[in-house]
Every structure is written in structure tokens, then in C-alpha cells.
Amino acid sequence: MSAYAELMAFQRQTEALAQVAGRLGWDQETMMPRGSAEQRAEESGAIQAVLHARRTDPRIGDWLENAEAPNEAGAAQLRHIKRDHERATRVPGDLAEALARLTSRSQGIWAEARAKDDFTSFAPVLDEVLTLKRQEGQALADGGDVYDALLEDYEPETTAAEIAALFDAMRPGLVDLRARCLAHPERPALGGAFGAAEQLKLSRELAEVFGYDLSRGRIDQAVHPFSSGSGDDVRITTRVSEADPFNCLYSTIHEVGHACYEQNIGPQYALTPLGRGVSMGVHESQSRIYENQLGRSRPFCHWLYGRMRDAFGPMNVGEDEFYACVNRLHRGYIRTEADEVQYNLHIMLRFDLERALIAGDVQVSDLEAAWNDRFEADFGYKVDRPSNGVLQDVHWSVGLFGYFPTYALGNVYAGCLHEALQAAVPELEAQLGQGDLREATTWLKASVQQFGGLYAPRDLITQACGKAPGAAPLMGYLDAKFGALYPE
């Protein structure tokens, strides 16, 4: 075998083991008995130790030195493997194992603290996670910026300074648009009781409408909706509130965007570094365009209104009011339930706080107060309880520092892709009004999803849209949509 063939055979086994590790995380969130947490922490630590040993295997360096890429895809494979190998060799094996064990345990502690609205019971283990993540970041940074080193795991070739500049440019327009919308009386939410079984049945239908292949996936329930896996085993979760069916339905559409990205990557890349989404920003662009530009559009809401009447019976609003309910700008605390205008402000808050945590400018003991103060300054009202504030997101409990800014970056990418999609599919609105997503999702598959990790994130969006990504399409879309919903 050539050096390239030997390397790819070795890498295939590593990728398969990483999928097994991911399945452990999925099971922990959906089906694992509560009393199994400590054992699962040991299992997660053990498999991460095996993965770290493989990723730092000295033979990888030898193979890379001697491998000749057979084509463009092969060159991209080598580029990813080299990057991952260099990063892995900077992190001590015992640190990687300790992080896996700790974050598995921390996740359960977070869930209990959230249920009890008790940040103090979570703070000690969060402090431990933060300490280990700083150590990991310092090892990866090799004298550079620690936060940038952590961000590289989620959005390669992007720096915190670049994201901060983007956010600074977006913030005034978002704040102004929010103020104009909030000058109107707050729109009422959809009223009534919506059975859990009916919601889950409709969410399954929506998943298939948006192209999710349930023969290679499944839908379960979790505290925090997520997508897991790649290739022929991609699973999603949603959650149900009988008073708020949109929580279930739009969480499902959002996670289907992630899942379809993974399912639609070219099968020739399965169990290789190219067989997964290239970055979390690009990943989020798929979930956000599915959920918002497509799923919350006026024509699609026309179709969904009819399906909800079929599922739940007569509702307390007409079709136009229904569209306004789906898109209502409202006071709230929860990021995942935020409207499109305010969502990015939630992300900016988290981005600034986690940078401060990594830098040591904010301590865990002061985090709840820092969150509450920043939230009141940004949104104009006080956080009422920790589960609506610092405890609402799972990310920090599992060590995902550097992840949050990719949500807003994904919104920017989604704005660019939507602009290009409208030009590519002139009949888009008519198709959405019929609940027909086939041409839209086929374009996204052909333009973005099929390539997996073949191209760098910005290059991929540039190629799909015909121009470099920027915030202007997103901001224009938001101004037009919410300006019509809340006219001056």
C-alpha cells in the first residue's frame, strides 16, 4: 500500500471510533438511565484516550511526509489530517482524557442545576471545566491567543477579532430594528393546548418535507435539541411544550438542517475528514436557512397553518395572524426561542462572556451576576431565574468554548445563501406555499452540503453565492421582513 492508502485506512478506523464516541453522547442525552452518569464518564474518557492516541500516532507524521495526494479531494484530506494531527499532538493525552471524563459528568450536573434553578450547585464543576479548557487552549495556542485556538475547532481560519468586528458592525442595525419593532404593542402568542403526540407526528412530517432521510436517522426528545452523527447514521432530537408547538416544530426543522448537511455529503467521503461539515458556521447556515428563511417565510407559514389545523383543529388566529405569531418579536430570555432580530444579540452576549472567562477577566463565581448585568443592559429587563439566564445552554458544561459565535456567523452565511437561492430558484415562494422544499434543498445540497470538508468555510460560501460572505444580505433580509411585520 502507498503511504496515502495506509494513512486513509488508519484514518477510516479513527473516524469510525469518533462516531461511536458521538453515539455515547447521543445516548446520554436521550436514553441513558440517570444513575449511569459516573460509568458513562469513565466510558467517554476511555474512548477519548483511544482516539487521542490514534490522532497523535507518530506514524501519521511519517505517512504525511511520504503521501502523495491523488487528486483535489486527496489534497484536502491530507490538509485536514495534518491540521488535526498537529493540534492533537499539542494536547497531552491525560488532559484529553480528563476533559472527556469531566464534561460527561458536568453535563448531568448542569441538567440537575438547571432543573433546580441553582447555579451554585453547577459552579464548582464549571470552574473545573474552564480550568481544563484554558489548559487545552494554552497547549493549542503555543504562545498565541488562547480563545482563537479554541475557536479553531469550530470555525477554522477565523479569529475572535474578526468576529468581534463583524458583531460590532451588525449590532447598531439590530438594536435599531428591535427598537422600531418593540415600539409596537407586543403581538400575542399562539394560544391553546397542543398535544405532545400530535406535535411529534407533525414534526416527523416536517422533517421529511425538508428532506431528512428517516431510514438513516431518527427523532428523539432531549432537554436541549441537537443533531448527532454523519453519513448513514444521523440522529436529531427535539423537545415538546404543549403550550408552544413552535418550540417543537421549529427545533425539528433547525436540527433537520444540520442533519441533512451530514446526510447529503458525498458518500465517497464517508468516514474520512471530508465526511463531516466543514465548520460550525457553515453547519449553522444550513439549520438557520431551513428554520428561518424557508420555514418562517410567509408562503411556508401559509402551508403550515393548514397542516396545523389538520393536526390540532381550529386555532384562535387566522392565517395572517399565524404568520405574525411565528415571527413575533417579543421579550424573552431563551436564545433558542428568540426571534431572528434578537437572536444575534443573545450570541454577542455569550461571545463576550466566554472570551472574558477564558482570559480570566470574569471568574465562574461572578458569572451569574455578569450574565444578569449584561442581559439587562442589552435587553432592558432583568433575568428572573438562572434557567432563563446563565443555566439555559448546555455548551459550557461540555466544554464548547468558542462554539457560540458560529451561530451568528451561520446566520450571516444563511443570509448570503438565501440571496443566491432566490436568484437560482425563481419559483421559490410558490413552491414554499405548497410545502414543496425539494428544489430549495436540492440547491443547498448541490451548492454546499455535498462537498463536506472539501473547501475552506469562506471559500465554500463564496463559491455557492458568487461573492464573498458579508452581513449585508442578512441585515437587508431582516429589515425587509420585520419592517413589513412592524411598519412605521
Automatic annotation (TrEMBL):
Catalytic activity: Release of a C-terminal amino acid with broad specificity, except for -Pro
Signal peptide feature range: none
EC number: 3.4.17.19
Comment on bound cofactor: Binds 1 zinc ion per subunit.
Active site positions: E255 (proton donor/acceptor)
One Pfam family recorded for the sequence: Peptidase_M32
One MF term in the entry's GO annotations: metal ion binding
Name of the protein described by the UniProt record: Metal-dependent carboxypeptidase
Taxonomy of the source species: Bacteria, Pseudomonadati, Pseudomonadota, Alphaproteobacteria, Rhodobacterales
